[in-house]
Specification:
The chain is built from nine helices and two strands; from the N terminus they run H-H-H-H-E-E-H-H-H-H-H. The longest helix has 36 residues. It has one domain: Rhodopsin 7-helix transmembrane proteins (Rhopdopsin 7-helix transmembrane proteins, Up-down Bundle), CATH 1.20.1070. Strands 1-2 form a two-stranded antiparallel ribbon. The protein starts with 12 loop residues before the first helix and ends in a 13-residue tail after the last helix. Strand 1 and strand 2 form a beta hairpin. Helix 3 runs antiparallel to helix 4. With 294 residues, the chain is mainly α. It comes from Sander lucioperca (Pike-perch). Keywords: Chromophore, Disulfide bond, G-protein coupled receptor, Membrane, Photoreceptor protein, Receptor, Retinal protein, Sensory transduction, Transducer, Transmembrane, Transmembrane helix, Vision. Pfam families: 7tm_1.
Length: 294
């Protein structure tokens, strides 16, 4: 029954379809790539190293974000949210866990790569398991905070997906958001910047560039930066003056991050892609040897 729902303010039928399709394509592609990454790790014994475990966890977090996006795509095609207000809070909570864990594991991978290339220190399983557990526990904790009343999960402008409600702009929102920005954007971004910068200097010294050290941080900031800037803007100004469509484009852009992460950290990682290739084709690849800097 077409008359059963009203379109959200500022959106046409075509917009709903377009955003839904964007979410669907990003979700399916990310899901597919990250699923390959996850299954490869579980199936190929040689891949199961402490370092690769970080990449595996990143893929799990990103897969969770893809599922979140696919749920939103489904609702966008229906043109309304079928899971009620509780479902909305749960959807926001689940998405937030995925985002916080994903960004944290990007930083963990950067830290680990620094040790792989620069210090040549062996990473132990105990360290990896401890760090990974802490990342998941903290992500769940910080995502659960709005469920306890510090910040609120509510509908995004299209009313087909839920996130932290940035339109309130009250003190709870401002303090929670700025805490997240420091813990989950500035700190991870600084970690990534300093570690990849050290790796870059090491590559210059050995004249052996194994991957582009600028890309991981750039990708993270390109996908998440605009959305986070809008959330920070909402701390100080009425964000409702920003058009609903633009306020929808930004989270959809952020939800493409898992695609790039899979390509960068699984398929583009010399210690991980061999295992993915082995899983897909049955052919083994010899692990790369890293030159010490003189």
């Amino acid at each position: 029954n077409m008359a059963a729902y009203t379109l959200p303010e500022g959106f046409t039928e075509f917009d709903m379809f377009t955003f839904g399709t964007g979410l669907l394509v990003a979700g399916m592609l990310g899901f597919f790539l990250n699923a390959i990454s996850i299954v490869s790790f579980l199936r190929v014994k040689e891949m199961q190293t402490p370092s690769n475990f970080f990449v595996f966890n990143l893929a799990v977090a990103d897969l969770c974000l893809n599922i979140n996006g696919l749920t939103a795509a489904y609702a966008s095609y229906l043109r309304y949210w079928p899971f009620g207000q509780d479902g909305c809070a749960y959807h926001g909570f689940q998405g937030m866990i995925a985002v916080l864990a994903s960004i944290s594991f990007m930083a963990a991978v950067a830290w680990d790569r620094y040790h792989q290339y620069c210090t040549r220190q062996k990473l132990f399983w105990s360290t990896t398991l401890t760090i990974s557990s802490i990342i998941w526990i903290l992500s769940i904790f910080w995502a659960a905070v709005p469920l306890m009343g510090w910040g609120v999960y509510d509908f995004e402008p299209m009313k087909t997906c839920c996130t932290l409600d940035y339109t309130r702009g009250d003190r709870d929102y401002v303090t929670y958001m700025l805490t997240l920005v420091v813990l989950y954007l500035m700190f991870p971004a600084y970690t990534m910047y300093s570690n990849y910068d050290a790796i870059h200097k090491h590559f210059k010294k050995t004249h052996h560039h194994r991957f582009n050290t600028n890309v991981p941080l750039r990708v993270m900031l390109t996908c998440w930066g605009p959305y986070v800037l809008m959330c920070i803007y909402a701390c100080f100004q009425n964000v409702k003056v920003v058009s609903p469509k633009l306020r929808m484009v930004l989270p959809v852009l952020a939800k493409t991050n898992p695609i790039f992460n899979a390509l960068l950290f699984s398929f583009g990682n010399e210690f991980y892609r061999g295992g993915v290739w082995h899983f897909l084709t049955g052919q083994k690849i010899v692990d790369p040897v890293i030159k010490k800097s003189k």
